[in-house]
Design a protein that fits this description.
Number of helices of chain A: 18
Number of domains of chain A: 2
CATH topology of the largest domain in chain A: BirA Bifunctional Protein, domain 2
Largest interface: A-B, 111 and 110 residues
Oligomer: homodimer
CATH architecture of the largest domain in chain A: 2-Layer Sandwich
Strand content of chain A: 15-25%
């Protein structure tokens, strides 16, 4: 009894049309990366578990897919080890599947520090794996498209990322808003409130203001142990309205006494100045409630929202001052941004924004009318391909109706038919499958017909 | 103490230059696949172990990378299970990493049989994983490039694969010889010798004739239990010399009494006839000693050898009559061929056949002479990118010598410099980094300078 075929939950097959759409996204994104001078690299799908563990928090460690050691993985395992599932899995698994592209990139930079030139500008488009609970739009295998530069503190790279976001979404014809914040503004805010130790609680609460409102945010801050006086320092920042430059102005008053806060003001002012001079087409704004993985970002933070389609952020990133420190290379600042290919896929599909004619079907199907007719068209197919026109010959001398059906199902644009009459005349009959129009074309004019 | 970063043995990082070379190979191969009407698909990296196990023989089962179940993988494991490492690994691992692209493709076809149109022409370029002993040229993670068509017995598809091989290696500028055989000829030979049960032993022995010589092959056949009379029937086939058509003629005499053998003669005659009419540029020949994974091929067998570089076969495949039968869909014949990207990489490198200027370095580096100078060139960079010219701005106002050094190390072709004089004149100075030539160009002529 044959097994019913299936794939692991949270993974997907991609058929021809899905691949054509995905390749459109990947090639659009990577072409923009290359226009800005970023080079592609790839790292292995599996890394030593020691490289991955402890880099994504306890929750991340749990979501790592571990790979069983090859050979006799359980040799030397004592029965009492069974009581500690976690320790046992470390003993029998030395490797794990890549969880994101950032940690492998940091490992790459440190391992190859003598081969790469700093500032090192790289992009990486590869799948990652997470043993997360699968649900709509969340997968256990999915692609990330990361672009990062390491080895420079220059804010010109923040600008470059903004320009990349601008160009990618213009090319993809998706209306977006880029939200920008700076981690130092949030640190400064916690500092002036005398609650630097509660920076995470403060930003988690602020992050919800759109959803739950000001009063609920204040309640949450109180429940986390902030005093009314501390909340009163933070509250004005939450009430800020107006343009980005008005918000920056107001924040520089609020943060006047905080060194890190004023450094943040300086950075955000410079970045907004650069962006304004760069003729960016997409909308952008300072969003003080933007938090994004506060634990490792140290400067600018970015997030991109689609304006015409309800979905979480489709792109995000920021600056981290010590990306490679975990692997022993200190003081290498990095800034990068990651495009969520799966969400962008959904946005383009939902808004019907894929270009026409993305399919990889061939342009031409030569009908098969028998052995001598096939011998007549075979050299024509060779010529077309040499001219860059994709084509194929139907494999059997089947009824023409069946051959037309095949062309139709595969959305092939043209049928080329040659029977006795055409062979005698040195020509072929070309049928345009969408208009139904037929033309008789001499064989030596076939290539020019399609070019 | 930071850990010294490393990657699992048998895996590799690919830096910018290696990626540029790999992408050249992949895009050349896939562009040819598309010219012949094949569509790309992708399958997940991890499959259910039940899909993979038992498909590659005992040795293959051992070489599968198994993925530990997420959550508490060892819950319910009894101490006595530790004595059977193999059974235990099945209990705690439900998933495995893809071992090749063929079995996942067969699974895909059966699972999506109502969505795809037959004959279904697909290509697939993805990594596979094998827990093999790593050595020079053999990796635990490597890419395969497979092209297959399922759902037709037509020999026109064998021809198509030959044409694909021809076009790929012409485009890559690698001299190759395509060796062709047919499994039915080997079955016929075993049958006329009255040794159909020893078909594997016979072909394994024949396969070695180039290395060990006729006498040693005969000795090996005897050691496998073939009688002198049986060997006398096989020997003439081993002694065949001459052109492919002379070999076919001789074989049709030897196989006259075998139905399967004569079917093989008919197929190989038809295929060679088709190939001769198709104006193939690469060398090709009938090679009766070609065996290739005899256990599943049923018709034509292909193998490609590089002529100017010593390495194993760089491409191979054939027809298998029941690809999808293991997953319950009977009588779907398939034929396909797989390009070994890693070996092709080595051949191109060894023969120095990569095109010049494969690197993904940007074309232009704008020197950074300070904030106002940067503001002057930023819009020029935007213009260049919109015109498709890749460029970047050096991130800091560093010494010009340092900026030149950076351009040099990254092999950037042009430096564009704008100081007070250029800004006053509305121009820039362009330095060709390879010739040293300098030109002063008005800003509004910059794009046309590079196009």
């Amino acid at each position: 009894m044959a097994q019913k075929p299936s794939i692991p939950k949270g993974t997907r097959d991609f058929g021809p049309m899905e691949m054509a759409r995905r390749n459109y996204i990947f090639s659009t994104i990577s072409s923009v990366f290359r226009l800005f001078g970023y080079s592609q690299i790839e790292t292995p799908s599996i890394e030593n578990l020691s490289t991955l563990l402890g880099k994504y928090g306890d929750e991340g460690d749990k979501l790592l897919f571990k790979v069983l050691n090859s050979g006799d993985a359980f040799a030397g395992v004592e029965p009492e080890m069974l009581s500690n599932s976690n320790a046992l899995s470390m003993k029998v698994c030395e490797k794990g599947m890549r969880y994101d592209l950032t940690v492998p990139f940091a490992r790459f930079v440190v391992q190859h520090q003598n081969e790469v030139h700093f500032p090192f500008k790289r992009y990486q488009i590869q799948p990652v794996w997470r043993a997360d609970r699968p649900q709509k739009g969340r997968y256990r295998e999915f692609y990330q498209c990361d672009v990062d530069v390491v080895g420079s503190n220059s804010l010109l790279y923040e600008l470059e990322l903004v320009q990349i976001v601008d160009m990618v979404f213009q090319k993809l014809c998706i209306n977006v808003c880029l939200k920008i914040n700076n981690r130092k503004l949030l640190s400064g805010l916690a500092q002036v409130a005398g609650a630097s130790d509660k920076i995470i609680d403060i930003t988690v609460a602020i992050d919800k203001i759109d959803k739950i409102g000001l009063d609920a945010v204040k309640e949450e801050l109180m429940s986390k142990g902030l005093s009314l006086e501390q909340i009163a320092v933070i509250e004005p920042a939450l009430l800020l309205k107006g343009s980005s430059s008005e918000k920056i102005e107001a924040m520089s008053g609020i943060l006047a006494t905080s060194e890190v806060g004023m450094k943040g003001i300086e950075e955000i002012k410079e970045l907004f100045g650069l962006i304004e001079s760069a003729n960016i087409k997409i909308g952008y704004e300072l969003d003080l409630s933007l938090a994004r993985g506060l634990n490792y970002y140290t400067g600018a933070i970015f997030e991109v929202k689609a304006l015409d389609y309800a979905i979480g952020s489709i792109c995000g990133g920021g600056r981290y001052d010590n990306l490679t420190g975990i692997f022993g290379l200190q003081n290498v600042s990095g800034v990068g941004i990651s495009f969520g290919a799966d969400r962008i896929y959904d946005v383009l599909l939902g808004l019907d924004k894929y270009p026409q004619a993305l399919d990889s079907a061939p342009t031409v199907l030569f009908a098969n009318m028998g052995a001598s007719e096939a011998a007549y068209v075979l050299p024509l197919a060779v010529e077309l391909r040499q001219a860059g026109v994709s084509c194929e010959l139907y494999p059997d001398n089947a009824k023409l109706r069946k051959q037309f059906e095949y062309a139709d199902k595969r959305a092939i644009q043209f049928m080329v038919i040659a029977g006795d009459d055409e062979m005698a005349a040195g020509s072929v009959t070309i049928k345009n499958m969408s208009t139904g129009e037929q033309s008789v074309v001499p064989c030596d004019k076939l290539v020019s017909f399609f070019k």
